[in-house]
Amino acid sequence: MLDPTELYQVEEDAEATLAPAEDAPVTDVPEPRVLLHHLGGYIDAGHAGRLAMDHLLTVLPATIIATFDVDQLLDYRSRRPTMTFDRDRWADYDEPLLALYTMHDLAGTPFLLLTGPEPDSQWERFAAAVGELIERFGVGLTVGVNAIPMAVPHTRPAGVTAHATRPGLISDHEQWSNTAELPGSAGALLELRLGQAGHDAMGLAAHVPHYLAETEYPQAARTLLDHVSVSTGLLLPTEALTEAAEEIGADIERKVASSEQASRVVRALERRYDSTVAAEGRPSLLADDQQLPTADELGAEAEAFLAEQEDHGTN
Fold this sequence. Notes:
Elements: E1 8-10, E2 33-40, H1 48-59, E3 62-68, H2 70-73, E4 83-86, E5 89-93, E6 99-104, E7 110-117, H3 123-136, E8 139-150, E9 160-164, E10 174-175, H4 186-196, E11 200-209, H5 218-232, H6 239-257, H7 260-280, H8 295-307
Parallel strand pairs: 2-7, 2-8, 8-11, 9-10
Antiparallel strand pairs: 1-3, 3-6, 4-5, 6-7, 9-11
Helix pairs in contact: 1-5, 3-4, 5-6
């Protein structure tokens, strides 16, 4: 493996940005220091992980403390960055950025955030590089976030499945009950390698109604940040996501009400969800017998109104 240190560049005075805010109560500083991450390119139903990262970068002050050499990591031909052509010349380039930020939560507590496009290559080297940064900046807990499509209705609370390098990190979360072989990701490999190296790491996957998987679903993003707060002690803002979730939720309700086919599908999912909760005390959403409704069951009319949600986003 090539030297991981040559894959990233750390900004000068990076450590200084990790000091607690001057008005932060010392007793409120969570231990250990947290690194939150989401890499675009893997499964992210409802774009929930991206929405959560974009939200934090919008509402909280952020400073880049390290950047990765994306020229070594990305396949531009598979994910072509956008360029702007202005009449007779190329005027702009949307340069991909994979960066590590330092931020402060609402109590002034510092934490790190890693986000950007998922590497197309050199996953082992990337994981080793992040491991070096984790040790350099004294990170004690790494938390990855994303979302998965599930056979659940939008009218019920969004669930979250957790996984971690040791059971004690997720004892209060719903967990996967079976063994499965799944497509890998750079984030999953990072969690695996961190655990093998003795670092605490965990992941949170929000459950998004499968029929909304291709649309922006801020309710799941808000749920992810709520669970991050519970797991880490960080005080993360969610007001804007809550407002966006209410607006999009109301629009979904109007469209469901106007489609009998869609209403039938939602009611069927509600019955299954409620019966499972009644039998087991919580929805066993990952059971082997949980089959997603087919496209025929959804119907062309239902698909049409759900596709319209793609026009909506968070502000």
